[in-house]
Fold this protein.
Amino acid sequence: MKKQLIQDAIKESLDNVARLELFNAYLYNVAAAVAKSAGLFGIALKFSRESDDEVQHHRDVVEYLNQRGCLFVPGEITAPVLTDETIKGLITAAYNQEVLTEKAYIELGSLALNTGVHATYQFVHEVLEHQTASVGEYADLIARIEQAATNEAALLLIDQEIGKV
Ligand SMILES: [Fe+2]
C-alpha cells in the first residue's frame, strides 16, 4: 500500500475539487444539450468541448492524488440545474461555475501554502493559470453578448463565432 504524502485536510480538498471537475463536465454536457435543442449549435459545440476538458481536469487531480500516494474517493454528483436557457444565461452559468471552481482551487492553494505543502501549492498554481484564463474568456463572451442585447440576428452570429473558438 502506498504511503500517503499529504495531510488529510489537503487530501479531502483534492477529492472535493476532483468531484467538482466531474460536476463541471456534467454541467457543460447539460448546457450543450440545452443549447443544441434551442438551435444554438456554436454554443453546443463549445460546451461539449468544455465538458471534455473538465473530465481531463478531473483526471489530472486524480493523477496528482496518485502521485502523492492517495486514492480518489468518489462522491455523489448532483444534477446540474440551468435556470436561464438563453445565450446570456448559459454563458453566465458557465462563468459563475468557473469563478466558483477558481475559488475552490484558491482555497486549496492557501491551505497548501499555509501548511508548507509546496508540491500541492505548485500543482494548484498550474491549474489556476488555465482557470483564470477560462474565467476571463467567459467574462469576454458575456460582454460581447451584452453588446447584441436582444438583437436575435446578432446573437446568432455570436453563437456561430463561439463555435469556432
Ligand atoms: Fe476545470
